[in-house]
Design goal:
Largest sheet: 4 strands, parallel
Strand order of the largest sheet: 11-2-1-12
Shape: globular
CATH topology of the largest domain: FAD/NAD(P)-binding domain
Number of helices: 10
Strand content: 5-15%
CATH class of the largest domain: Alpha Beta
Distance between the termini: 38 Å
Number of strands: 12
Structural class: alpha/beta
Number of domains: 2
CATH superfamily of the largest domain: FAD/NAD(P)-binding domain
């Protein structure tokens, strides 16, 4: 008996939907099974109170890769992102620390708390921008196999080495620190204002189940500098209609390519013991294909 599907994806979260959309776009026959009544996983919009719709878990958009938006034509399926223009950190003494998308406003605000930090912030921002540009090309790279005898793998490995060598000793050392240090220790090297360090350190622990003193969280801090919206680097935004509209747009793209999505009790009892005609692939999506933010 031949299965009507090439791939069955277990779970209709935004990651599973993205996999389904790309597989269907490539001409595969795809089925998505979601136990809940709605798709989206952690990227859902629901009425917590009657008449009021909320982004329940994931709440902001930035690390949704622009190539995915283009490939799946998500704007045609209803995705509309509103820019995030400022943030506010309230302080116990009644004061606050605000962050803006305007350089002069930010500098003036930081100077209220520390002239030293206002000066250091410009250099910090330049370095993080350089490091983000250095790392971003690697995010979509398929890791080369160093044990492979395939010339293509050796070529990719050589290209990766060349990319890292072009950073130079100073920037490579800076990248090494970001890859290995904790966000709190790294920020201690730059700033003295506790409110600023706490605000920035939060970006190093989102979605990690780690603390700000955990090694490696400095890279998570860097990772959140790589956001991009409509070609604007380091930009953040809110999806109109809540983050469920992101999942809805991806689901719409998947369906437009021919994928079938079943919700409401479409759970999986067991995997088939043998692939049907060697063609059925069952995919349980647990990786972070589409990184949104918080509660991913």
């Amino acid at each position: 008996m031949r299965t009507p599907y090439d791939a069955i994806i277990i779970g209709g979260g935004h990651n599973g939907l993205t996999c389904a959309a790309y597989l269907a776009r490539a001409g595969r026959r795809v089925l998505v099974l979601e136990r809940r009544e709605c798709v989206g996983g952690a990227a859902v919009s629901e009425q917590v109170f009657p008449g009021f719709t909320f982004s329940v878990f994931s709440y902001v958009v930035s690390l949704l890769r622009p190539e995915i938006i283009r490939d799946l034509d998500l704007s045609r399926h209803g995705l509309h992102i509103l820019p995030l223009e400022s943030t506010l950190t309230p302080l116990p003494n009644g004061d606050y620390l605000a962050q803006w998308d305007d350089h002069d406003q930010n500098r003036h605000e930081l100077a209220r708390h520390s002239l030293r930090d206002a000066e250091a912030y410009d250099e910090f921002g330049r370095l993080m921008h350089q490091m983000s540009r250095a790392v971003k090309p690697l995010l979509g790279l398929i890791p080369p196999d160093p044990a492979s005898l395939n010339p293509r793998d050796w070529f990719e490995l050589a290209r990766l080495g060349s990319h890292l060598r072009r950073l130079g000793p100073t920037r490579f050392h800076a990248l090494h620190k970001l890859l290995t240090m904790s966000s709190a220790d790294y920020l201690d090297e730059w700033f003295e204002t506790e409110a600023l360090k706490a605000t920035k350190a939060a970006s190093g622990i989102i979605g990690t189940l780690a603390g700000p003193r955990s090694p490696g969280t400095a890279y998570v801090l860097l990772h959140h500098y790589m956001g991009e919206i409509d070609g604007v680097f380091r930009a953040w935004g809110f999806a109109k209609g809540g983050n469920g509209s992101v999942s809805g747009a991806i689901a719409g793209a998947a369906r437009s390519f021919g994928a079938e999505i079943r919700t409401g009790g479409a759970s999986v009892a067991e995997r088939p013991k043998h692939p049907l005609n060697g063609r059925l692939v069952v995919i349980h999506v647990a990786m972070d294909v589409v990184n949104l933010q918080s509660g991913k």
